[in-house]
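Tokens in:
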């Protein structure tokens, strides 16, 4: 693998529209005109597997207007390019592909984004050059139906909305040690309902996020409780050295490390940070659908508790449909996971609020 690797596909087009290269000024003149690539391309410093790189979003104008054998004028394609300062091992291709797929899943809200065209650069340094790499390659993966997009970009994040921290977000999501748990995302285009697996996964996602951010939240001081209980075990062992085996003492001692807040409280502490902007978006959506949502703090806490209990009893519980889920709590929590991930990528709360408003409306205000 040389310095650069390119990815093309519908999922990339959906978060960085290739139409950004078209001049809007020429529309009234009945002609098609495009800007230089440098005007619309975006570049962000990032890293993959600890290796510094630059993430570039650019556009390729695949012209066919001079080809007499076709009536097509051509096609616009967006490119997500990962560029390194020096040539890299070919083994890094899979890491780049995986990081890109996770990032696209986060931005599109779908897991079925793996059908990407992958190409490499040989000797040239591509930078923002608007054409895909010259060496095609194939990543062996499970082929599933590609994601389909329609109308305005509701419920997916556009690169323009994500501002200057895209590189930080890409690095965070691309790294296995810091990425959010996204198992609750749809895996096919038809996978739009909420099932037991998604309920488990959304709860797991909050456990993961809280684990990453536990030090940020004011909480019951479980550390002091754990420390005192450990001291009690030590004293008991010293006073009764032969009463129980060392394995029993060690097991009791180590199990205390798992004492923490209840799952429902962890979910609430994360959700409450973004409740205002998330609830505002769902309030607006409910006006159009005619659905009445109770979004008070007391009801939200109760709904979170309901979902966590359902997760705990899911093996014995009757099948749950999305209509059974009160006050759209599952969908609201899903947005909170996105918000928490943005926090960890360095976005301030006010910037996240603007991004989430765009997420609901399909445009930046």
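Residues out:
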């Amino acid at each position: 693998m040389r310095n650069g690797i390119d990815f093309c596909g519908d999922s990339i087009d959906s978060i960085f529209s290739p139409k950004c290269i078209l001049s809007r000024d020429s529309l009234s003149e009945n002609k098609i005109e495009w800007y230089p690539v440098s005007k619309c391309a975006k570049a962000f410093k990032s890293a993959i597997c600890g290796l510094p790189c630059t993430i570039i979003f650019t556009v390729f104008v695949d012209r066919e207007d001079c080809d007499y054998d076709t009536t097509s004028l051509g096609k616009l394609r967006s490119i997500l390019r990962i560029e390194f300062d020096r040539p890299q091992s070919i083994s890094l291709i899979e890491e780049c592909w995986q990081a890109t797929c996770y990032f696209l899943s986060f931005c599109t809200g779908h897991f079925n984004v793996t059908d990407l065209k992958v190409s490499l650069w040989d000797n040239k340094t591509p930078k923002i050059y608007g054409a895909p790499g010259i060496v095609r390659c194939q990543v062996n993966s499970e082929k599933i139906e590609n994601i389909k997009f329609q109308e305005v970009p509701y419920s997916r994040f556009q690169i323009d909305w994500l501002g200057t921290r895209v590189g930080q977000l890409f690095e965070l999501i691309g790294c296995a040690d810091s990425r959010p748990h996204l198992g609750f995302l749809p895996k096919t285009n038809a996978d739009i309902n909420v099932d037991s697996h998604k309920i488990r996964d959304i709860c797991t996602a909050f456990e993961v996020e809280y684990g990453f951010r536990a030090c940020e939240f004011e909480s019951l001081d479980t550390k002091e409780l754990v420390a005192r209980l450990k001291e009690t075990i030590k004293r008991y062992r010293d006073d009764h050295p032969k009463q129980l085996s060392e394995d029993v003492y060690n097991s009791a001692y180590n199990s205390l490390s798992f004492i923490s807040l209840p799952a429902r409280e962890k979910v609430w502490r994360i959700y409450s940070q973004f409740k205002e902007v998330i609830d505002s978006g769902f309030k607006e959506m409910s006006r159009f659908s005619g659905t009445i949502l109770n979004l008070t703090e007391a009801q939200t806490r109760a709904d979170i508790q309901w979902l966590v209990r359902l997760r705990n009893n899911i093996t014995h519980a009757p099948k749950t449909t999305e209509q059974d889920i009160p006050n759209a709590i599952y969908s609201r929590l899903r947005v909170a996971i996105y918000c928490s991930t943005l926090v960890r990528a360095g976005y301030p709360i006010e910037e996240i609020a603007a991004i989430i408003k765009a997420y609901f409306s399909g445009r930046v205000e």
